[in-house]
């Protein structure tokens, strides 16, 4: 179809707006301010702008996310088909809702819990409320112990790196020790395990640090020479 200069300017403005919106979404996602996943469509702005130009205010649209298509002014048969699909989707959602509290265990005996089925912002908000309620029902000593153990795992990750990141590991170990010392006697039956873990990671740090420092200070010997001849 032929487009006027004003229509082309309008389309270009919509493309620029869509690109700026995508960039801002990406920025917020990288900052951790957008929960879940993010699918970028940078480079596809012209498709959306072109489609918008072809639409009228009274057009009926069907957005099929599964097939990745947009249907404009569907015929009665197609409209009825998508109406049936919506009803089936609602039924499936209700079925999943009934499975939330059904016990589930893997073949090797590992229990699995289904806590949320998130497809929309409303479902995400409901899942967050449910998570907060579940967290409120867990003793604080259990939650804190899990976080403290996370510092042990962080230190182990840095120590296992080649070469080991000693400064990073030291920070995690110091935080582990400081936190454990500040709340000593308040972590219940997990405290003894955490104390043992702290002692183990400290010992591992000393051993790995000594090993790498020793390797760094050892003078290399050139091939074909011995310590007796001094390399002469």
The number of distinct β-strands equals 4
Structural category is: mainly alpha
Largest sheet composition:
2 strands, antiparallel
Total DSSP helices: 7
What gyration radius follows from the Cα positions, in whole Å? 30 Å
Shape: elongated
**Strand neighbour order, sheet with most strands:** 1-2
Which percent range fits the helix content?
Answer: 55-70%
Question: Terminal Cα separation, in Å?
Answer: 88 Å
Low-confidence stretches: 225-232
Helix/strand order, N-terminal first? HHEEHEEHHHH
Number of domains: 4
Q: Give the percentage of residues in beta strands.
A: 5-15%
* Mean pLDDT across every amino acid position: 84
Describe the protein.
Helix 5 runs antiparallel to helix 6, helix 5 (140-160) packs parallel to helix 7 and helix 6 (166-182) runs antiparallel to helix 7 (191-217). The chain has a two-stranded antiparallel sheet with strand order 1-2. The chain contains seven helices and four strands, in the order ααββαββαααα. The protein has helices spanning 5-30, 45-54, 76-98, 121-136, 140-160, 166-182, 191-217, and strands at residues 61-64, 69-72, 104-105, 111-112. The protein has 232 residues and is mainly alpha-helical. The radius of gyration is 30 Å and the shape is elongated. The chain has four domains: 7-24 and 32-54, no CATH class; 58-98; 105-136, no CATH class; 140-213. The model is unreliable at 225-232 (pLDDT under 50).
